[in-house]
Amino acid sequence: MPPEVARRLRVSLKSAYQWHQLWRDGGRKALASRGPGGSRCRLWPRCLEKLAGYLEQGPAAHGWVEDQVWTAARVATLDRPEVPRLVQRLGCHEADAPARLQSAGPRTAGRRARRAGRHRLEGGDLDGGKRARAACGEYICFEDEAGFTRRPPRGRTWGRRGRTPVVTVSGRRSGRLSVAGLIAMRPGSRSRLCHRLRTHRAGKGKRRSMGERDFIALVDGAHQLLRAPIVLVWDRLNTHISHAMRELIAEREWLTVFLLPAYSPDLSSVEGVWAHVKRSLANLAVVALDRLEALVRNRLKPLQYRPATLDGFIAGTGLTLDDPA
Fold this sequence. Notes:
Elements: H1 2-9, H2 13-26, H3 45-57, H4 72-76, H5 83-89, E1 92-93, E2 100-103, H6 130-134, E3 139-148, E4 159-160, E5 166-169, E6 176-185, E7 192-200, H7 212-226, E8 230-234, H8 243-250, E9 255-259, H9 270-280, H10 289-303, H11 307-316
Parallel strand pairs: 2-5, 3-8, 8-9
Antiparallel strand pairs: 1-4, 3-6, 6-7
């Protein structure tokens, strides 16, 4: 059926119905490719071979030493502006060429658990009630944390068909960067983003995550910025529900805390921030931990001046904030 073909091949429904009509009229021969469309390529075969060599050398060989991703704008600086058409003539493709990460050292053990299961709002404190409705007049703050290492997330880039691009990264335990973020929102007010970073150097016996003091310092900083009481919404991380954290929360009369269900990353708007930042750090080449911290700060800074983008992250959770009035 055309709808199923469109879904599997990720094409428009109109294209699927056109292919179906061609198949009914002329059979499988009518579906054969006629080659790339558009005008004839004006580049000499030698120039095409030269451009293909540039692509195989990788972005690092041409000055982009950090993120190893070929984009149309970067390829345009090498030859001509008709880049998407040219790279497709060379047998390159973007959607089917995710970069493969090749470790430059021993591989670190451990994998992140897969996210699965259905999430229900009834599992947390946000399932309604007088307490939730009474707190809706204050700033609602969603908090979440993320970790960054020298092993970057994989991203898509231009590459020759059948030849997966390889990005050399560090496989050693060279430290970790922990980031805690907080999105503050209130009807009629501009959404705000606050964040706190901490670098964890490699070594036995050293902490590799943020503690209670780090999280409460983030909340205190948001309170000083907003100058209003805060309703904090976060997950059930052991640091969030520890005895020390409960004591710190009890000392702040302006702070009200709600817990999300046991595992519900889709209900936290800050998850969209981390996905946005990690997408921009895809295929990152080997960099020092200090440089990684600077890059993460550089990606987070523009989001603080884009409240519309933050509102999009909030809308992506599906949660609605009703005015108690």
